[in-house]
Amino acid sequence: MSESKASVTWQENKAFMGVSPSGHNVQIDADKEKGASPMELILLGLGGCASYDVVAILQKSRQEVTDVRCELTAQRAETVPAVYTDIHMHFVVTGQDVKDSQVEKAIKLSAEKYCSASRMLVQGGVNVTHDFEVIAG
Fold first, then answer.
1. What is the dihedral sign for C-alpha 110, 114, 118, 121?
2. How far is CA 124 from CA 74, 118, 121, in A?
3. Measured distance between the N- and C-terminal CA atoms of the chain, rounded to whole angstroms
4. How far from the centroid of its chain's Cα atoms is residue 65's Cα?
5. Does 4 share its domain with 71?
6. Do residues 67 and 129 both lie within one domain?
7. What pTM does this model have?
8. 3-state secondary structure of 8
9. What is the pLDDT at residue 93?
């Protein structure tokens, strides 16, 4: 097992400064005035993790990708703790002659094998779904 260390320091009100294991500062604010909320960061982490996988897999399969965007839509429970119950990830992949079958395969590999954020959320009971569109360009 590998170990990661991070820190979160209170600034004021509901604002905190996070320092990632790689040393990057991340502004966190539950009131969303000075930064993203903790739950928003979970959503962004999922999108970043899956998008990284999709780009890497498409590049390895020699797809001429020029842009990948992951649009996430999430539902949260009505009661505390207001966990995510459902997250839908819509990938928009732009490139020259990008094959739908390759995009579908990349998303599936990310979801089922490579994206640790997705696996962790799914194992925790979150319903994570995916779809995509390919745009020539």
1. positive
2. 15, 10, 5
3. 42
4. 19
5. no
6. yes
7. 0.94
8. strand
9. 98
Tell me, yes or no, whether 46 and 29 share the same domain: no
81 DSSP 8-state letter? S
Q: What confidence category does residue 137 fall into, taking pLDDT thresholds of 50, 70 and 90?
A: confident
User: Which residue range forms the structural domain that includes residue 31?
Assistant: 1-36
Residues 15, 53 share a domain = no
Amino acid at 37: S
In this structure, are 80 and 18 located in the same domain?
no
Q: What is the CATH number of the domain that holds 1?
A: 2.20.25
Cα-Cα-Cα-Cα dihedral of 82, 17, 70, 120, to 10°? -50
**Residue 28 pairs with which residues in a beta bridge?**
16, 36
**Cβ–Cβ under 8 Å, residues 9 and 20:** no
The single-letter DSSP state of residue 33 is S
What order of strands is seen across the sheet that includes strand 84-96? 64-76, 84-96, 127-136
54-107 tens-digit pLDDT:
999 999 999 999 999 999 999 999 999 999 999 999 999 999 999 999 999 999
Work out how many domains the chain is built from and give that number.
2
Quick one: 56 and 110 in the same domain? yes
